[in-house]
Amino acid sequence: MSPVPAVAAWPPVAEPGQPGVQPHAEPLPESTACGEPIAADPVAEGLPGVDPVPDEPQSPGAALLEELHAHICRYAVLPSPGAVDAVTLWAAATHLQAVWHHAPRLAIVAPARRCGKSRLLDILVETVYDPLITVNTSASAIYRTIAERPRTLLIDEVDTIFGNPRAAEKYEDLRGLLNAGHQRNRPVTRSAGNDHQSREFSTFAMAALAGIGDLPGTIMDRSIVIRMRRRADGEVVAPLRDRRDGVLLRETRDKLSRWALEVSEEARALRPDMPVEDRAADTWEPLVAVADLAGGSWPRRARQACVAMVAAEAEIEEDSCGGARILADVRRIFFSHGDPAILPTTAILAALNDDPEAPWAEHGRGGLSARALAGLLKDYQISSSNIRLPDGTQRKGYTFNKFADSWRRYCPKVHPLPPRASAVAA
User: Fold this and answer.
1) Where is the composition biased (Low complexity) (predicted)?
2) Domain positions in the chain
């Protein structure tokens, strides 16, 4: 009978004021708190032919980011190493939001309860700059609170606000505030005081929002998105207790504040090279700037996380029922037919409704109809017309050329367009 292997114990939890007890003082069994396997270290194991390499001294900023990174990994399991890096950089960036031109949102979303959203928000409460945490609030209360200085908004259970259609209408001002506050100098104007004088209120503030399901598309588009999952067997985290662990987190927060003060002028002048463009670049720029200020491995890690997470969200958006999904699916249909100059509406609808993994068969009682398809394409200025088929009959359908411009703009990676598409007169 083979012996039962011994189970390694979790490292002791740090007790403030107790000497000799540090978080992660010993290697974790099988995986780190972030769920990533620990690679063997040939230098540490003294393998032949491997010369020890002295550790390069870390800059103060890089050391602080690593400290915050270790806290997050100790108390929460995030979906990827890039997600941990992104949350670390976002929390550090809150301490410099006075110099940023954009205030990225951190969308902490999950498909179900008990995925660690609130735990991650608890960590952020203790580490971000001047936190303002709430579960249910109004837009007017927020912009009056942040009017004098940008604070870090932390909103939990945001699905109760935006997930309910009736509540979403009530909180439309809050959605507008979160959209406007992504960029500096986008104030709201309200009457204030007994004399009802017009007054401008600042909306600029970094914000983290946690909830079940996706947030409204306009907010997601301005967010670094962290898609939380339930912990699997073997993914272990330490318990988070404010009276014990909050002390360590707040010490890290204080050190980040002091470091941010030292590099604030450098941060104000910094224009980092971005690996993405447009709004994604605006959203990720403060995080990449913090990584460049810190140095070490962080500039590379920040850009890797940026590229991977932006691409992942673009893929999710393409696969969603709304947005450009209809364009991408019609592009695939034309491609599967050999990119003909024309296709009848009936052929397009049959292919859309026959796809078992697409949402179109459930779009209506009989699936997606010709009228519904026309409605989905209307915003892209694409309409059907009378087309002549090879057998000489005329039917309603769509021409390749009417889609070509929208395909290039909204779904360029779905089957590249041929060099030239012949025009067909309707």
Assistant:
1) 1-12
2) 60-319, 325-410
